[in-house]
Amino acid sequence: MVSIGLMFTVGAVSLNLPDGPGSLTRRLCAALREGIQTGRLAPDSALPPSRSLASEIGCSRWVVTEAYGQLVTEGYLIATTGSATRVRGTATGFPTGAAHQLAPPPRPRFDLTPGVPDLAAFPRSRWAEAYRQAVLDLPNDLLAGRALISTSAARTTLTDFLRRTRQVQEDPSQLSLTTGSTAGMGWLTALLAKLGHTRIAVEDPSWAGLRAVARRGGITPVPIPVDQHGLVVGRLSEHRDVRLALVTPAHQFPVGVALSAARRLELIDWARRVDGLIIEDDYDADFRYDARPVASLQGLAPDRVVLLGSLSKALSPAIELGWLIMPQPLIMALLGLDLDRIVSPSPITVEALAVMIERGWYERHLRAQRLRYRRRRELFVDALAQHLPQTQVTGLAAGLHLPLRLPPGTDAAELVRRGARRELGLVSAERYRIRPLDDPGLVLGFGNLRDSRIDEAVQRLAVATAESVRSPRRRPR
Amino acid sequence: MVSIGLMFTVGAVSLNLPDGPGSLTRRLCAALREGIQTGRLAPDSALPPSRSLASEIGCSRWVVTEAYGQLVTEGYLIATTGSATRVRGTATGFPTGAAHQLAPPPRPRFDLTPGVPDLAAFPRSRWAEAYRQAVLDLPNDLLAGRALISTSAARTTLTDFLRRTRQVQEDPSQLSLTTGSTAGMGWLTALLAKLGHTRIAVEDPSWAGLRAVARRGGITPVPIPVDQHGLVVGRLSEHRDVRLALVTPAHQFPVGVALSAARRLELIDWARRVDGLIIEDDYDADFRYDARPVASLQGLAPDRVVLLGSLSKALSPAIELGWLIMPQPLIMALLGLDLDRIVSPSPITVEALAVMIERGWYERHLRAQRLRYRRRRELFVDALAQHLPQTQVTGLAAGLHLPLRLPPGTDAAELVRRGARRELGLVSAERYRIRPLDDPGLVLGFGNLRDSRIDEAVQRLAVATAESVRSPRRRPR
Questions:
Q1: ipTM of this model?
Q2: Contact A103 B149 (CB under 8 A)
Q3: Domains of chain B, with CATH numbers?
């Protein structure tokens, strides 16, 4: 309450009756309430008779009795017949003192952590215009709820787009809208747990986020190794009770390889043999620089593959929109779930994406980003070759990250710490491994790193790397 | 694939090479993939040598070998050295036939179900403009993630607004942003379960949604009756292991009363005595027509009350924005939770609301809606008095619903069914009760009912009510 208004007194305490909007009664309520909440009006202290306070303020007595009445209703004051209105006796519990501040951690100046797209390239005007169009056009009824379903026009637009760009096979009824891949995995897990699944094969290494969702939903991750052809599918048969597999076929995260054709067929055969399901995390498949993107696994076996996709890499996680494509029988099972446990995206957002697609803005953005990322990756790889020739970039020319093999003897954890002191955001490859491996590496994200900062970032990385080589004598901890 | 392009043949099958965007290789891939997916190109059938297909299409041979290569990579084709490229042998599982359509259920023409605000009054242009401003102004970093936190400016705006309109006591660090009350209750439940709570007192009757969230999170609801002063707080002490209570103090749902001052104090005393917490579901407190809204319970005991609020009633559930105000110690415990299990709202949406508040648009909208709903409720009550004089409206002049007591002997379930045949959406009061009570009633929502339809809706309701009186002889079921 910072506005300056009329001062008035209650006992020895002077209070401020603020100017501003609202009736006099309302402002008087606010002033008294604040006095009580801050402790300036002590518990049990008597309020002046309404007549005298009214004359001090210069208002009708009715205003004061109204205000007292309201605060009695709210529990701040106590009125006793024949006695003064008093501040409630047990007015404890009002917090004082400086508040704890919850600030989001600032992003490091040279942010090489993977997973963040080029935020500066977010098509702000176009998205705002698409959203405006969506808000203006959305039927009233859709404003009543969430968008597991949305309009059939928007669903058809998105389905057609995914068929064209990811070669999925689906009809719009197989598409469910989510707020993102993690949320989609959440209710997929709920569904699969209900259908009796207790274990899921996951790639080792892989992103911990989706694995953790499965685990929280009661489905235990079973690590399966990854080699240069992707998931080592042959190892699945070692686990007889596993009938689910979570994979990143287009661009394995973080290893950066594509699942080979032979492995694709082997994986689908496995799923058919065990009557299982494959969950395809299609997280960054829009971005391939050396060739066209490999088509989705879903298109090859729509009866056995669930595809998880989102706008997180293509536009921004802040849009909060993703999708699930499921085989028909699973859709039917989904409808048997409590739908209110499913957090669906805003129908306005879904319509806005449909507008972006229909006007060609979304594909234009993807094309522009593909060129931008390709160039950024080249600059990054060149800088690494120049300043860190003893390291090795592995993986395909794709996506927004690259795995970097460090010289033997480098302490990757130490490098992450030393990097932080040089304003570098780094992530060790170890973070994604389920079973530890003594092979030091980093997973470097270049999506949100400005081109002009690449060279300096890599120079700083080179210094930090040099400092993080284990000396032959073990240094004391 | 509806575009018409060049036809070409593979064996006896003729395929369509579509016109349109994309390179010739890409379009050839699409045509072959579609042929395989639809089963027109049978498993194991041989593809023509690249030279002959190229000459049929009239393109370079390289285009065909590229396309074949891509489809081998994707697993659609198999290449064997010295032999023809073939369609993969086990290409089963491609669904055919008409797809099941998942259409959202249409809203009834006379929608008297509670919980839906006036969707036609959604301030489309203003919201679009606020969103546009938010998209253009949002710092890049905020596009990287979700908005449990958001900008401190937006948080301060919302905190100030809640202090002004709901008399909450908080500083911005106590505010957490959610996608709505149900989601907020979800992670509050996770937190409270982790802190050892196993049971929660809930109002009987009450909305089942939040209770169900608690139950799913492992906290069992314990029903406590409601009378004309709100929750019968005295009954809490019958349950020694209950230290949580979920209440609707401003406007009990569905009974429609406000929690009295004495009960407010009694409830807070109870919470202090048992070292417990009160969850205040502040779902429709913006709308009171006979008096000013009762201040929040949170403002009276910020150390013991968690306030749950959202835009669902004030704007639309489709915005997907809500908030939680928690005591400081709970905020600290929250930070110990896995934050990735929390679905936070889009930071753009949070900023858009801040713009709405700063420009005064949000309060103007609330004022306009208050007048509109007040008038609508009056028309509705008048129509009920005219066409259904034997019923009784109970509860305060507030919110978007009113409880209607039916004449004794009315079969409310039958009335709901008969109403549906007359295009009326009705909900029996029974739906909200945990312990059944033989006192027939409806809970009627008027928020989304057009003024011009009220009279006809009530006339239809009168006819359906007359048809639903139990005859003295019990009719066979």
A1: 0.80
A2: yes
A3: 6-87 (1.10.10.10), 110-117+363-467 (3.90.1150.10), 123-360 (3.40.640.10)
